[in-house]
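Limitations
The structure tokens in this dataset are predictions for the assembled complex, not deposited experimental models. Users should treat interface geometry with appropriate caution, especially where small molecules or nucleic acid strands are included. An illustrative entry is reproduced here so readers can see what is and is not provided.
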Amino acid sequence: MSVSMKNVSASYGEEETWALKDISLEVNRGEVVGILGPTGSGKTTLFMTLKGILPHILPGRVRGQISIDGKEAITGKVAGAVGLVLPDPNVSIVALTVEDDVAFGPQCMGLPTGEIQKRVDESLELFRLRGYEKRVTYTLSGGESQATCVASIYSMKPRVFALDEPLSMIDPVGRETVLRAIQKLTKELGATVLIAESGDTIEYIAPICERFVVLNNGQKIADGPAREILQDRQLLNRIRIRPPQVTELAYDLSLPKDKVPLTVEEAAALISKLLRPSKSKGTESAHKVSQPAGSRIIEVRNLHHTFPGLRPVEALKGINLDINQGEMVGLIGQNGSGKTTLALHLVGIYRPTNPDAKVIVDGVELHNPKTPLTEVVKHINYVFQNPDNQLFSDTVEEEVTYALKMLDLPQEEINRKVDSILTLYGMQDDRKKPIMYLTKDKKTFLAQASVLVMNPKIIVVDEPTTGLDHEMGEKVMTILRRLNREENRTILIITHNMNLVAKYADRLVVMSNGQILLDGPTGEVFSKTDALKQCSISPPQITRLGQSLNLRPDVLTVEEMIDLLKDRVSTRSNP
Amino acid sequence: MSAILTLEYEPKDTVFHRMNPLAKVVLYLFIMSLAFVWWDPIYLTIACAVTAIMCWRAKLPGPMAKIILTLFAVVAVTSTIFHPAWLFQSDPNYFKKLPAETVTHIVFAIPQGFPFAGFPITLGKLIYLYSYLARYLLPMMVVFLFLYTVNPSDLVQMMIQMRLPNTIVFMFLSIFRFFSLFTRMLTNIINAQSLRGWSWKTKNPVVLIKRAAPLFAPLGRGFISMIDVATVSISNRGFELALKMAPLRQYRPGIWEKAIIYLLPPLFFILWYLTTLPPYYVGNI
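Predicted assembly:
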């Protein structure tokens, strides 16, 4: 037995309530186990306890028995055998350069210089970090940072590899790279792998997990083979997790339960056997390609941005972009492609580094360094990924009124706007609540509400659903869509979640190496698979299934696929 | 915003960036320690001028230079007003080298109509004030030069190479992690607040403090968690798993760097001796 936990409970600090309650878990050597659960279900606490960070580094209580490779772990120090990848790269990175960060773990293990260098080279190669050796870690994008964190733990070659939401910020091709590395660890070194997941990237981890352990409110509520867990719809609804798209499709088409597909290949093989021929020509797009009616609201011409340094990084290389009023645009691209840099130009935080650039947003000249930010924020605004960076007041009401007071609005208008925005997010009852007692999802809502209350015509949202479970994520996106459809606001979503943009964005702008590689209606962009591969993007599972079955190249949602297949799939036939 | 970011090391191709990390530390400590030894305004002026040239050669960015000058201006004003010791430096016995007639020479007296009218400002008082302020400016410049040119990762590797105890390496790493996290967090918070219409651009110090208030709550919240974060991130990498760590890179100093490492420490003690002990008082007043 590689990992054994018997009746383990854990709590933080002096808290009386247990964050982890009576967990018993046994994992064999070389096994890959997924830990599923919504936000706050105890996944991170489970890993912190296994690693020994709780209670040896963070104060808290742990009771029960934990052993790793047969050795009692609970009484010792931090477990050296466990390599833990934390969900927030900012928490994990230690050193100033990528190379030093990857080397730090092996150095701490007391390995000789030659072996350290060998492991560093191997990890950099495996995680596509070659060329980043001397990059200063704080200049990395979110995805690059996350890849660095995984590489840094990988270089320690741990016997137990615990990854807490390791894929959330990594581009789709990068995700496959991480998964390949995990498989390499298990095959070559016999390492045991535990991967925590709350929903967004389940389609990536499902095929490699032999087993899923499901946590809810700190308790283990299910433990079984991956396919068995993923076909229990009631269970998944209870923990607010959506299965992989192809699995969901299989439920909805009532396909045989013993053949629940997890991958596009499995689904294609299964469905193609059940598919009746259609008279219509299948490969045509059903999405109307139409130009939005609104006038141009964002104009970017020849925008360059270079970050200075010994090796200056050219983050943007001559961007040209027009966005019309009322569009809902998804900004996607590989890690470090320049998405966030471009977005920060659109809101005036960054200014162009070339004198001939033009950035005009709703008539405001942002390329002019003299344009004050206070003028810009009336037209466009940005919701940061981490709500804790935005929220600074004591109560919800103070937070939402802050920006309105800065704009010197009359009190009556402030009250009206605050009522309206809190109602929109369903937070009327939280008005007087201290922010520190809000849950993560409510903090995310509040961060968005405190920006939207300023009524900007254009809203840029960075990873709007990260850290939220499926239900809460849907709520956020429904609000944004409503603002777009009913109030004609222009919305720009930066994300690595392809399912999200497929469902909600009308148009996709794909960035690669500081340039715009593709720009067009969502379905059309997702149908250009070869071009997408160049920028490490892989379309949603359901789109790839449509392409694989030669049905249509631009199916964007499970519902669309069901419409396409419902009359053509014979569920009674035995595959 | 950018000024806050420049409080960190930035890779550049300058002689100071390329210098062996240990030689850099010894050189900077040597210059800084001169401020605690010398009182002679000429010596201190030369030391300040040399350090300013070093800053220029190290391509210290404009915003950082502005921070040094602003901090120095604040220290100069507050020290002149609120640290009145300089006003009482007219007793020749306080001075070891300067002749009594120089020290007591009245440069000007506070004019009638002002508080303390007729109070004499002597040359001794002004020399003391000048040196007192120069002793602030010199370490300030060196600290910023250190932050800008010393790569903390190099220092860590150097410490490991020198077989310093893990506890010292851990302490240094924690401080470095904490500082780096703090500047990141501050930048994020300022960006987020600016997009809510917040601005701290004002010349009125009272308004400035009032406007900075929204930063304190998230900073305060983050401060506690950052200490945990710094500790967790280092412990998570198995720090102290092994008694001895091997360096990733070996640093071999050149001839000039060796000269700095081996000659400057004894030179400091010689200068200290010459400054404090009679009959030399070299660099003293």
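Some entries come with short summary sentences. For this one: Residues 301 and 320 of chain A are 5 Å apart (CA to CA).
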